[in-house]
What does this fold into?
Amino acid sequence: MNCFHLDDFLAGWIGGASSVIVGHPLDTVKTRLQAGKGYKNTLHCVLQIYRKETIAGFFKGLSFPLASITVYNSVVFGFFNNTQRVISKFRHGDERRSCGMLDMTLASMLTGLMSVGLGAPVDLVKIRLQMQTLPCLSENLNLAGTTGNVNGNIAVRSVTLQGQPTYRGPIHCISSILRTEGIRGLYRGAGAMVLRDVPGYTLYFIPYALFRRWLSPEGRSSPHPCTVWVSGGLAGSISWVTATPADVVKSRLQADALHARKYRGIVHCVVQSYQTEGIHVFFRGASVNAIRGFPMSATMFLGYELSLQFFRAL
It folds into this structure.
């Protein structure tokens, strides 16, 4: 019997599109908090974005993730479920046999590792577009006429000079990165993404399976939509909160444009961030991750499960 099932990919695509639309505004806030300057807390960041950029500021860079992350989630869910079937076929001779926790953990870790190849460029472009009007340290931009004040605080200046953004859109962003940084530039922060996604997907799929099992009444062949919603939401919050430290490092590396290069790599980013901002910097955006992780993942899993039931009923 063929272990490969196309319906997992199609269902993942639909779930991914739904989750992107739901989660992008808070994803923008999360990115600004982690890689930016001048925000006191989550509420202050939200108010600043709205005041300076109106509601459109929360959807900056949406077109690219909507087009790409849907494909990304399709690959992730398709790969995860088909990998489980391959493992079951290899270990037990029956692809239909449900995976145990150990097999599911292996499938989750492999999914996280695989996802970086496609996800790193997607995240990089999304973050560069989200950071268009963000104040950056002026010393890193080598802009003349900006100095620290008497207290040693460094003045900031906006990356967007006279209202002209660095990137006109996702295609221009990709071409600019390739031109100035090469193909390696598209994978800046990929190492930190591996550190985030390998354990992150394990703490995404495993809690979902456990919560769904606990919340489903015995004898029910398929989970109730409410069970899927709650299980997916809780799994998303757990995964994103625990992944926040690695996500902070990844976001900073990816927001670090060539002309404003500040970090030489993962270790340098961790050390510099700790020395200048303390240990709490690695948990910046954790509350936003917990909040946005719930509706995003709840929508993702619900869209996936309902689509899968629809395709298999055809």
